[in-house]
């Protein structure tokens, strides 16, 4: 009885605090039918249903981790537009951070990233099934930030433009060799061989990606120009004129970045160019995502993922023996990309739920929409960094960025 009264008192205080300081357009509905407005509104944008009393401790300290956990476990449910639901989740978390007087960033976790651990983490995330990803990605299955050159492109067009933007930035020429670290389902190496005339090696740790990428290369008649390997970047050998890494270095680990960039340097020809395209933290001290969510991501989405600040990226890149030549922020582009993915996911929600089950459906639903909001509000960011070997004459480098735009991106093949 005492515990119940204490919990009810905490709930009353929490509701009063939210009404006074957060004013969220939310109606809170309890398992016993009781409803409470959490702000002043004519009609709530979101209805939050708490399905069992056991969920209240998670709700009363509503970090993104706790809210995500309660939603995935079916202890709470939301009604409303997905974008509004995500905003409300951040509103709860911000209010909890304010009440606790906590810092905006938490100390980020560090992982050891052995070859076995990295292989297991990659396969956990990417080997859900190829059919699952095909339901909400573009037809080429590009699972990374698109490039909206004019802002009005559809997703498929913007993904082709992203690949061309990368390959143009690194000045890929016919007959050159290209290594794509974390090649996904092969879209970049296929484009590099077909449009730019390159000879390519793509590596991945995902069995599903390896199988489908190999089949796509064979179907395109490019097996003599493209090799797909099931391989760790640390075990790759050879010398390549160009190297790309798109959406992969988030799995490397902050402590391993000097070695990662050093490995790229070892694999890169003396006059070569490389590009690293990856998600970063906005925290200069390399903390976890604002208002957290890191534990949820590590448990359910990206095991052992670590996001460095762009400052750490540039410092460790230099420590690895590379010099940054061009740096471009694409945060707005990723927010739009994720909105496209989330909309596709919602439109095919019934099919996805029947394919992967309720729990995994909820994980990916909240993950995609939550990340869209995070990039929109600079709680996560993303950069493309073009680099070359340090300490070498740069006579072949263009004097301006005009070379990137002289030809229309994604133009005629």
From TrEMBL:
Transmembrane segments: none annotated. The keyword Lipid metabolism applies. Coiled coil: none annotated. One of its GO terms (molecular function) is cyclopropane-fatty-acyl-phospholipid synthase activity. It comes from the Bacteria. Keywords: Lipid metabolism, Methyltransferase, S-adenosyl-L-methionine, Transferase. Its EC number is 2.1.1.79. Residues 18-91 form the DUF7884 domain. One of its GO terms (biological process) is methylation. The active site is at 371. Pfam families: CMAS (PF02353), DUF7884 (PF25371). It is an enzyme of class 2 (transferase). PANTHER family: CYCLOPROPANE-FATTY-ACYL-PHOSPHOLIPID SYNTHASE (PTHR43667). Belongs to the CFA/CMAS family. This is CYCLOPROPANE-FATTY-ACYL-PHOSPHOLIPID SYNTHASE. It comes from Cupriavidus taiwanensis (strain DSM 17343 / BCRC 17206 / CCUG 44338 / CIP 107171 / LMG 19424 / R1). The lineage of its organism: Bacteria, Pseudomonadati, Pseudomonadota, Betaproteobacteria, Burkholderiales.
